Amino acid sequence: CGGSSDEKQCPFHEKCDFETDLCKALNKLNLQPGWIRRNGRHGMGPPYFDHSGNDSAHFLSLSSEMRSSYATLRTNVFLPTDEEHICQITFHYWISQKSGTLMIGLQKHSEDTITNIWQDSGELQNQWKTNTITINSTEKYEV
């Protein structure tokens, strides 16, 4: 459900909201150049609030000083167990100002390549969108 109350009953459920840090999923060393943790009060241009309308809530944003044409975030390694092979990731995203593509890739530890599993392209959408991806894997992987 949208309020995440159903996930609270799951033993492996973790919530990440960037309020206190970069979450367990994102190691500071994996925060590649171009990404900054900010909130809507920083006055850096849209968005001026998070997906719930809170202007003091934190989210990750691409820096306007970015020199390269792309920036990457890489999660810590997900470790499926004998009982649990499915991971569901729900995220909110905003595309504004510049045209571009937001992509989510999956790299299994047995493979050298990253497989694109989701993407959205657009320009000046200027609204928060939500998406959920489900990954079913019996081996270690990163997103």
From TrEMBL:
> Which cellular component terms (GO) are annotated to the entry?
membrane
Please give the superkingdom of this protein's source: Eukaryota
Q: Which Pfam families match?
A: MAM
Give the residue range of the signal peptide.
none
Give every MAM domain span.
14-143
Which InterPro entries does this one have? ConA-like_dom_sf (IPR013320), MAM_dom (IPR000998), MAM_domain-containing (IPR051560)
Protein name per UniProt:
MAM domain-containing protein
Tell me what organism the protein belongs to.
Answer: Mesitornis unicolor
